């Protein structure tokens, strides 16, 4: 789970974050992970592939042809899914929609994911996934949950959006 612009102690000490802290109890916490540059996108590319691939901005028309964490997970037959804040649908390649911003979704920048319906179909709105699962903590072996910042549990009040 990546929470940009949120201090770890602000999240862990928040009583509204019960679901988030329940996930943490079942996994690990990277306490020494920091951005390598600004703005957001190059950091997300580095996080998911080990390199910024020369990307220096939050570009919306750029793309990357490079190995990434999804390639590594699938090579080892490890399940994965990306839960993204407010993504309007799997394989959405637009620059923005409602609260979603493409720059916060590194997966859609990788050609081998964006151009594969099977792979890009492994992305969905985390709010809708939580709502549909009845707030279950059942996740694939490796899941990326991306949130703009921390604001409590944030399960959608309007499930019709899902």
List keywords for this structure.
4-stranded parallel beta sheet, single chain, 7 helices, alpha/beta, two-stranded antiparallel ribbon, globular
Summarize the model shown.
By secondary structure, the chain is of the alpha/beta class.
Principal-axes shape call: globular
The helix/strand series, from N terminus to C terminus, equals EHHHHEEEHHEHE
User: Which residues sit in consecutive blocks of at least 5 with pLDDT less than 50?
Assistant: 147-159
Radius of gyration: 15 Å
Q: How large is the share of residues in beta strands?
A: 5-15%
The end-to-end distance, rounded to whole angstroms, is 21 Å
Kindly report the spatial arrangement of strands forming the biggest sheet: 1-6-2-5
- Helix coverage percent of residues? 25-40%
| Count of beta strands | 6
User: How many strands, which pairing sense, and closed or not: the largest β-sheet?
Assistant: 4 strands, parallel
SS-derived structural category: alpha/beta
Average pLDDT level: 81
Tally of contiguous helical segments? 7
Number of domains: 1
Task: Explain how this protein is built.
- The protein is an alpha/beta fold.
- It has one domain (2-161).
- Helices cover 28% and strands 12% of the residues.
- The chain has seven helices and six strands; from the N terminus they run βααααβββααβαβ.
- The strands form two sheets. The chain has a four-stranded parallel β-sheet.
- Strand 3 and strand 4 form a beta hairpin.
